[in-house]
Specification:
- The complex is a heterodimer of chains A (about 650) and B (about 160).
- In chain A, strand 13 and strand 14 form a beta hairpin.
- Chain A folds into 5 domains: about 100 residues, Glutaredoxin (3-Layer(aba) Sandwich); about 210 residues, Rossmann fold (3-Layer(aba) Sandwich), CATH 3.40.50; about 90 residues, Ubiquitin-like (UB roll); about 90 residues, Up-down Bundle (de novo design (two linked rop proteins)); about 90 residues, Alpha-Beta Plaits (2-Layer Sandwich).
- By secondary structure, chain A is of the alpha/beta class.
- In chain B, helix 1 runs antiparallel to helix 2 and helix 1 crosses helix 3.
- Classes of the chains: A alpha/beta (about 650), B alpha+beta (about 160).
- Chains A and B meet through helix 2, strand 11, strand 15, helix 18 and helix 25 of A and helix 2, helix 4, helix 5 and helix 6 of B.
């Protein structure tokens, strides 16, 4: 079995791999989201077609390519031809197209009547600067060879030839700040950990990506696990730790699987373990799986969880750098931060510093999701405006809908209204607007999103995830959630708004850890920017976005209903009366407001409508469509 | 009989060399074998690791991914992440609740289905997401969700008829 005993072994190994490198291959995006859209079936289909057509085509099953809207998708290399939104029934044509070298127009990506051949030309990719994600389409994450071929573990060789202090200086100089949310300078964190006198120190990779709406860490761990692992080994060498831990969410089974494979492959090659590449430095890593607790993203809670305890945060100081895992000095960084470390060591601090703004360096990966046309993972230089990101990369609203806000930073973040979309995305600007960078979830909201409902959603989330240790968070979030529920049910008063604001400030100022301190942010920002929506719920008993169940009604427009029975058949609570060619009527007392009728009513008919705060008169009982038309005709004659 | 979990539990504890701080992965492994954490198993773990049962319960109730009640033959999980929420994830839960006549966290009286919610599975771009027995489905509508249940119902019928 091959063991790399020194840097030259690694370089020779890479040269050997290069001799047999396959340059023509189909790269299939197959992260968790690709799989949810049928990538595994597509792979199966392609394999079958290859056999049937008795041809040989190298296939690479990779992590996420980032453009989730276009899943399942594939790229033909070396040309970079991009086929989007495929189905397993296309398998045969795909294989034929590849083996004949003929582009099948119908599989190409289309946007606004334009067809795009190459991945990089697509508007979604064009404005991005993909540094951490760029290798994903070239790497089968279960093969360390692919990573080494792309230059992997060169940074480690370089780091091992440097003094630990020099590495820390390089990271400090680069201006890298923590990608997990708070944005603390990484180099300074390392320096503190390095300065601790202790025989045992630990490194932790925080992969407890708990912010709903953020999944860049999952994508990195699934698609390019060695990039993160390499950063951790470098970090271990820099601060003087011999042991590292990955803490990965339980909800990410594929990430855990790929990481486990990556660790074992790195170990067997000698890139991990005793005396790495003959440097005398030894480092080992273990994986701890989370168990579904959001608060474990907080560093002290995460440490408690690895130690086999409830994930209760504790007051700091002492900071983990002084007293962390098992009481030893511990340095925790987020997945994306570790990936950046590898790139900074490879390309240098000056290169990294040249990207981004004065205080926020480098790129940041965002998950652009929600009510935006092009959803997916985007990597852009810090300082790009929200407007550029949402409209130029994201393509604006879905179905021409008007955008209202973006929610950044998860449950700890805030909603930034459309008027402020010129804001550059950097740590300071987002904080000044009441949001935070967070881990990079960017949820776009349009006119159909109710901001009071969004605030309620987040408070419901934080209230459930509050560990219960400190009173302001445990009781405060519950009270806030109850007031918000009252408002969404149309039972709120203006006095409630005052109480809500007071509570928000108390919880923010008096909670023990970051969860409580930031939990009121979604409420405070929506109150600040969308107060009129709260007032509409309270004063007019109306939900302007037609979301809050208690304040809306479904109604069938008798002038449009054709009596097709579709809604009647699909109504789960038998609340619709009607018959063939009869105008259907919803019995409001029986309606559970599930919206099934609206969903099934054919688009060209569009008879089912949602209303809030207004009543429409129509037939109380089903009557034949023809009869209604006659009645209407008479009425209009009058 | 039938409730003797000692072989499974002991095997898993040995894998972790009986270390107390491995209690969370031990519970995770036991659960992946048994699909939930029966009281008998917790009692065995408590004795072997010398951690009080109350302590184990305090951990098992803190973390959401532990189940202290049996789960149905099929598990339907609806993602409640923000992106899924703004695209109507709540309606999917309502539709499934209505169809199965259970609330999230509940199990149908015949033991066939458990309905669960999860905070976010990180497939935000293609929400709303439903996971049925570990398989992910994206861009799900309420009707599609209930349709998924029906497809399982049919499969089961087919299996039955093949056997007979």
């Amino acid at each position: 079995m091959l063991v790399l005993k020194n840097p030259d072994d690694l370089f020779r190994y890479r040269e050997d791999l290069k001799k047999n490198e396959v340059k023509n291959f189909i790269s299939i995006s197959s992260g968790t989201c690709g799989r949810a859209r049928g990538s595994l079936k597509l792979i199966e289909g392609i394999e079958k077609a290859i056999k049937e057509l008795k041809t040989e085509i190298p296939m690479k099953i990779t992590g996420c390519h980032g453009y989730c809207t276009a899943e399942p998708n594939i790229v033909f290399f070396p040309e970079g031809t991009f086929y989007a939104n495929l189905s397993h029934s296309n398998a045969k044509e795909i294989v034929e197209s590849f083996s004949k070298g003929k582009i099948e127009e119908k599989f190409l990506y289309r946007e606004d009547q334009k067809t795009y051949k190459i991945l990089e030309d697509i508007p979604f990719y064009k404005k991005q600067q993909r540094i951490l994600l760029s290798d994903n389409p070239f790497i089968d994450p279960t093969k360390i060879e692919d990573y080494i071929l792309r230059g992997g573990y060169t940074s480690l060789v370089k780091a091992l030839s440097m003094k630990p202090e020099e590495i820390i200086e390089e990271i400090k100089n680069s201006g890298l700040r923590g990608r997990g949310g708070a944005g603390f300078p990484t180099g300074i964190k390392w320096e503190i950990a390095r300065a601790q006198k202790s025989d045992i120190k630990y490194i932790i990779c925080n992969g407890d990506e708990g912010d709903p709406g953020a999944y860049m860490d999952r994508s990195l761990l699934e698609g390019n696990p060695h990039l993160v692992l390499e950063g951790m080994i470098i970090g271990g060498y820099a601060i003087g730790a011999r042991e590292g831990w990955f803490y990965v969410r339980d909800e990410y089974p594929l990430a855990v699987k790929h990481l486990t494979i990556a660790i074992s492959q790195a170990k067997s090659l000698g890139l991990l373990g005793e005396n790495i590449l003959g440097s005398g430095f030894s480092f080992d890593v273990k994986i701890a799986r989370g168990a579904g607790a959001f608060v474990c993203g907080e560093e002290t809670a995460l440490i408690a969880s690895i130690e086999g305890k409830r994930g209760n945060p504790r007051p700091r100081p002492p900071y983990p750098a002084q007293q962390g895992l098992f009481g030893k000095p511990t340095n925790i960084n987020n997945v994306e931060t570790w990936a950046n470390v590898t790139k900074i060591i490879e390309k240098g601090a000056d290169w990294f510093k040249s990207i981004g703004t004065e205080k926020s360096k480098g790129t940041k990966i965002f998950s652009l999701v929600g009510k935006v046309k092009n959803t997916g993972l985007v990597e852009v230089p810090m300082g790009m405006t929200i407007k550029e990101l949402v409209y130029e990369v994201g393509g604006g609203g879905q179905d021409g809908k008007k955008l209202k806000a973006v929610q950044i930073g998860g449950p700890s973040g805030g909603c930034i209204p459309e008027e402020l979309f010129n804001l550059p995305i950097d740590y300071e600007s987002l904080t000044s607007a009441g949001a935070i960078m967070g881990s990079g979830g960017m949820i776009v909201m349009d006119e159909d999103t109710c901001m009071v409902d969004v605030a309620k959603y987040f408070l419901n989330f934080t209230q459930e995830e509050s560990c219960g240790k400190c009173v302001p968070c445990r009781v405060g979030t519950r009270q806030m959630k109850e007031i918000l529920t009252k408002i969404t049910e149309g039972k709120g008063t203006m006095k409630d708004l005052e109480t809500l604001e007071n509570l928000a400030h108390t919880v923010k100022n008096a909670s023990l850890c970051g969860l409580g301190q930031t939990a009121p942010n979604p409420v405070l920002t929506t109150l600040k920017y969308f107060r009129h929506e709260y007032e509409a719920h309270i004063i007019e008993k109306r939900c302007p976005a037609l979301v809050c169940k208690e304040l809306i009604n479904y109604y069938i427009d008798p002038n449009k209903c054709v009596g097709c029975l579709l809604c009647l058949k699909n109504c789960p609570s038998n609340a619709i009366l009607g018959g063939n060619k009869m105008i259907h009527v919803i019995v409001q007392e029986k309606c559970i407001k599930c919206g099934a009728c609206l969903e099934v009513c054919p688009k060209k008919v569009s008879a089912v409508i949602k209303l809030s705060g207004e009543k429409r008169e129509g037939p109380k009982e089903p009557i034949p469509v023809q009869e209604w038309k006659k009645m209407r005709g008479k009425e209009s004659e009058k | 009989m039938g409730l003797d979990y000692s072989q499974i539990v002991n095997g898993i504890i040995e894998k972790y060399n009986g270390r107390k701080e491995a209690i969370i992965p031990i519970l995770q492994d036991v659960q992946s074998e048994l699909r939930w954490l029966p009281p008998e198993a917790i009692s065995l773990i408590s004795k072997r690791l010398k951690i009080s049962e109350s302590n184990i319960y305090s951990i098992a109730t803190f973390y959401k991914s532990f189940y202290l009640k049996p789960r149905g033959e099929h598990v339907v999980t609806v993602c409640m992440g923000t992106a899924c929420h703004v695209r109507g994830g709540g309606k999917i839960v309502d539709a499934l609740s209505e169809k199965l006549k259970i609330k999230p966290g509940g199990i149908t009286s015949d033991g066939k289905f458990t309905l669960e919610t999860v905070n976010c599975v990180g497939c935000c771009a293609i929400g709303p997401i439903v996971i049925l027995d570990g398989e992910y489905y994206g861009k799900v509508s309420p009707n599609m969700a209930t349709g998924l249940l029906e497809s399982i119902g049919k499969e089961m019928k087919n299996v039955g008829s093949e056997k007979s």
